[in-house]
Structures are given as C-alpha cells and as structure tokens.
Write a structure and sequence with these properties.
The longest helix has 21 residues. 33% of the residues lie in helices and 18% in strands. It starts with a helix and ends in a 10-residue tail after the last helix. The strands form 4 sheets. A 5-stranded mixed β-sheet has the order 8-7-9-6-10, with helices on both faces. By secondary structure, it is an alpha/beta fold. The protein is elongated.
C-alpha cells in the first residue's frame, strides 16, 4: 500500500508539472522568430558564442520525469529532452563534458528575469504571450492531446470519438486538453476539470471518471510507467494549430538564432524524428474520428 501511495505521488508530481508546462496553448503554432528579436548579430562560431560561462553551455531544467528525462539525472542523455539537448550542444560545437545543468523552477523559465541558463529544456509551449518576455528557439515538437482509459473500464475498447459519448472525461482546467475535448465531443460527454493531469489520472484510477485527456507523449508515459493499468487509445483532432514546444532563452539572447539553427539542422537530418520515436513512443497512435 505504501509503495502504491508513493507511485501515485510521483505520478501526480510528474503530470502536474506537465500541466504547468503546457499553459494556454490555444495560440500555439507560433515559431521562434516571434521571440527571437535582437538576435540578428549572433554568430554561431563556437568560439564566439556568448554563453554565461565561456566554453560551457548551461542548460536549465526542473524536476526530471519520463519521457523527457529518465531517472532524476538530466545528464544521462536518456529521455527525449536530455538526448535532444546533447544533440543541440553537438551542433553548437560543445562536447558532452562542456554541458552543465541548472536546476530551476518552471516559473523561473518563463518569467521575464535574467536567466541562470543559456537555454532551458522543459516542455515549454510556445505562445505569443510568453514570447513577449522570453525568446523561444525554433519548435522541436508538435504536441497533440491523447485519450487515456482504464484497461478494465467500460471504454477500454473505444476506437472512435462516438464510442466515448456519455463518458465522464478528466481534463486540465485552462489547458489545451479542455479546448480540444470541447471541440471533439461538444456536450456529448461530461468534461471534469482538474488542476493537473496527475489528479485526473488518480481520479480515473479510483473510478470517479472514465477517461483522461492529456498531452499524448505524457499520456504514453503515464500509461506505461506511472499507471500501468491504463492505455492511450488515440489522439484528439487538434482544435487549431497543434501546440509546439521550444527551448527558452533570455529575451533578445544572442544565442537564439544559433539554437534555432541547431534545432532546424536536427530536423533536416532526421534526428528530431528519431529521438521522438526512441523516447516518446507515440508512433502509430491513431487520431480518433
């Protein structure tokens, strides 16, 4: 019983952090150039990069959790964002040993303060509001909302949106999960808002609701790591442009253009797709219609 309680606490923390990272992404789909003003003079020559510490690339993140990081050590290169950070560092000319990590809160990442990092990697959705006070790199991931159900529940065999009509479905208040769920089902389901996806998953585990809508990458992790008696049955159609994640830099950072160029190079050579396939495990999840 004690172990179960610990698992639920860990899961709640991890999924709560995801909710914090998501923010209001109804205006998602923006690109780095909305937050990258003032970077025209940047040079991507490694010797000329203006990092906080000469010769070192300092990366900010907060509490590590899957699938973005594996374990509690972000330096392992395991997990989507840990692996991606080292790939970006390599593009910028930094060896693994030249990368250091700074533990920060999500609020520090998105606040209009001088940053204690060169860039932050913490599932931060690009929004116009945030781009007014921080810089974003080019987006490295489009995110969609997944539907998680209990393996033993009444909706375990659902394969279409209509199969869930009449269900009580948990969403995160003020997040993309709510807007996409409203667009998908209208009033044919009962949407139950929670402060974060972790609380919704616990509510489903105790039988209070039938399904949960959350970021599909985190949904896969939730169903395989934190709540193994659940499954992701599909994604919802995006109600607008899909939300996008980007690295966060200090506003008007001289590094923004270089980090964006590194991301785009990794997109072009297939590294982004390869890392997503390896760590996010969302390949093959169908869109519900």
């Amino acid at each position: 019983m004690r172990r179960r309680a610990l698992v639920l606490t860990t899961a709640a923390l991890a999924l709560a952090l995801t909710a914090c990272s998501g923010g209001d992404s109804s205006n998602g789909g923006t690109t780095a150039d909305q937050g990258g003003e003032g970077t025209e003079t940047a040079t991507c020559d490694p010797a000329a990069l203006e990092t906080l510490t000469e010769g070192t690339l300092t990366v900010g993140t907060s509490t590590p959790y899957e699938p973005w990081y594996v374990g509690e050590d972000p330096t392992t290169g395991e997990g989507f964002e840990s692996a991606l950070v080292y790939a970006v560092a390599d593009q910028l000319g930094f060896a693994e040993e030249d990368v250091t990590w700074e533990n920060v809160t999500f609020e520090q990442i998105i606040a209009p303060n001088i940053k204690p990092f060169d860039f932050a990697a913490y599932q931060t959705t690009i929004t116009p509001e945030r781009a007014e006070v921080v810089d974003f790199s080019a987006p490295y991931l489009d995110t969609y909302q997944g539907v998680v159900v209990a393996d033993s529940g009444d909706y375990a065999e659902a394969s279409a949106l209509t199969d869930l009509e009449g269900a009580r479905i948990g969403v995160t208040a003020g997040q993309t999960s709510l807007t996409d769920a409203e667009a998908a089902w209208g009033d044919t389901v009962e949407l139950v808002p929670y402060d974060d996806a972790g609380m919704a998953m616990q509510a489903m585990s105790s039988g209070q609701i039938d399904a949960v809508v959350m970021d599909v990458s985190q949904g896969v992790s939730a169903s395989t790591v934190y709540f193994p008696d659940t499954s992701v049955i599909g994604t919802l159609p995006a109600s607008g442009e899909p939300a996008q994640l980007g690295f966060v830099l200090d506003v008007e950072s001289s590094l923004t253009t270089c980090v964006s160029d590194a991301v785009e190079a990794l997109r072009t050579d297939g590294t982004l797709d390869a890392l997503a396939s390896e760590w996010l495990n969302t390949d093959g999840i169908p869109e519900l219609s």
